[in-house]
Amino acid sequence: MTSKKEPRSLSGQATQQMPGCQPALRDETRWRLLQAATGVFAELGYHAATTREICRRAGVNLASIHYYYGDKAELYREVFRLPFLKECNVFASLDITQVSLREALHAFYSWLFPPTAENDPMMQFFLRLHAREESDPSGVLGDAMMQAFRPNHEKMQALLCRELRLKKPDAEVDRLVFCVIGLAVVYLHNRAAVEDFAPHLIDGQKAKEAMVENLVRYAIALIEAERKRRATATRSRK
């Protein structure tokens, strides 16, 4: 009797470099499912999307989703995990003992604002899907996004502890981490407002490159302000 195949997660053995870049041939079926699912979910939403339509667009048999992911909900969660994979996210895999503060921040913000996003249909689908999830939650993501983002958060904590010469984060470091991350995340979570009020900030490659450079500058200013505050507090206690 053949044992039941466990669903295999792309997160465990990713081969693509960025969303939209085809992986090795051995992962072709899974990649085609992810491409098709991202498009269908972005267009129709989680509840209206059907596994039949996803498989039709992927050109695979209907059993493929069950074989690779178990069910539609897990496939949906896997689509949301894609941009957080180490292969896609240079920042999460950085050795922060070997890079400058500016280099680390540039890697983080470049991950959130890839300059060639407009040329990547997969990325465009993902942005639409993210906006749809914000306005009409599927109810199936659970803590998948938080767990996927955790390595980034912990890496930023470690980076700021290094800069402030701390062995572990305190409350002020935790506040600063959210400030530094929040500088960029606000543009993603409120993308509709940005596109309505100031679309030139994120429209096109040059705009995204300028966004990254400015976010790096703002973040460094925040970190320097915290460094000076701590130095002043230390002197006042002497």
Number of separate domains: 2
What is the average of the pLDDT values? 84
What is the subunit arrangement here?
single chain
Given this structure, which CATH class of the largest domain is correct? Answer: Mainly Alpha
Q: Helical stretch count?
A: 10
Number of extended strands: 0
Largest sheet: none
**How big is the Rg?**
20 Å
Principal-axes geometry comes out as: elongated
Distance between the termini: 75 Å
The helix/strand class is mainly alpha
Strand content: under 5%
Key descriptive features of the protein:
238 residues; mainly alpha; Arc Repressor Mutant, subunit A; Tetracycline Repressor, domain 2; 10 helices; 62% helix; elongated
Description:
By secondary structure, this protein is mostly helical. The chain is 62% helix and 0% strand. The chain contains ten helices and no strands.
Write the layout of secondary structure elements.
Blueprint (H helix, E strand, L loop, with lengths): L27 H17 L6 H8 L5 H6 L2 H10 L19 H12 L8 H15 L8 H21 L6 H19 L1 H7 L7 H33 L1
